[in-house]
Amino acid sequence: METNPTPADNTYLISTDPAKLDLPLIHRYLSQESYWAQNIPLELVERSIRHSLCFGVYHQHQQIGFARLVTDRATFAYLADVFILSAHRGKGVSKQLMAYIHAYPEVQGLRRWLLGTKDAHGLYARFGWKPIPEEQVSRFMQLHNPDVYRGRTEEQTNR
To answer: What is the pTM of this model?
Structure first.
């Protein structure tokens, strides 16, 4: 599925076609520029993309943004790895991407969506996202290894 450019955003295209994804660009951004996936190996980025519903954002046939949903496409989705390259920020592209993801046919009717963000609360709030209410916070747990990508051997990565 792709969006056709509209007058307000006539230079951007969003697609879920995995063949269009620029893996080196996605890996470079995640491993070098993101705060959440520093040093992630290329092989793990490739595997995460294979097992997710991915959205590429393109300008003049070049990828400039990305997001992926880890989802069963029935009840749950986790929104991850969302980025727009800095040269394209401030142009409404992230809003266009979020509108596209939220309207995507395969994820309509999900019971719960989750995400983690350090600095984009305002963007997500525009689409109905809210912090987890205090009375529900204690229901959620996590396993978190923030240093998982440091010192990984190639053998560990390819498991």
So the answer is: 0.87
